[in-house]
Design brief:
The structure is a single chain. Helices cover about 55% and strands about 0% of the residues. By secondary structure, the protein is mainly α. The chain is elongated and about 45 Å long.
Length: about 120
């Protein structure tokens, strides 16, 4: 399964004499199926956290834990590492950290603990 990220250059596009896609700004990524499953699991955990936080605390809760901040940092750095580290290796680390952060956030929400 391939995820193809292509952007169309609007600068310099003059009409039919140009190719439809005249520049590739983002390379083609070969994303394995297990990575899509991992992203789905993390999204499901985060969604459950949001719903359970609303049920338990009667408001939408998103805890800003240290692990959530580390996950955000890793997500920011992730595209920069694609030319150095293979996708499958860096994605394993990122998925593990993000899954742990989502589970930890759910724990804090259900226990009613607020992160300061």
């Amino acid at each position: 399964m391939k995820l193809v990220l292509v952007t169309k250059s609007l600068v310099g596009y003059k009409g039919n004499d140009q190719h439809q896609f005249n520049s590739y700004l983002i390379p083609v990524l070969d994303v394995p199926v297990w990575l899509w499953v991992c992203i789905g699991i993390i999204a499901a955990i985060k969604s459950i956290n949001l719903v359970s936080g609303f049920i338990v605390q009667k408001k939408f809760v998103a805890e800003h834990t240290v692990m959530n901040k580390i996950t955000g940092l890793l997500l920011f750095i992730f595209p920069l590492t694609l030319s150095i580290i293979d996708l499958k290796y860096s994605a394993i680390v990122l998925c593990a950290v993000a899954t742990f952060a989502a589970i930890q956030e759910g724990y804090f929400i259900r226990m009613g603990k607020e992160v300061k």
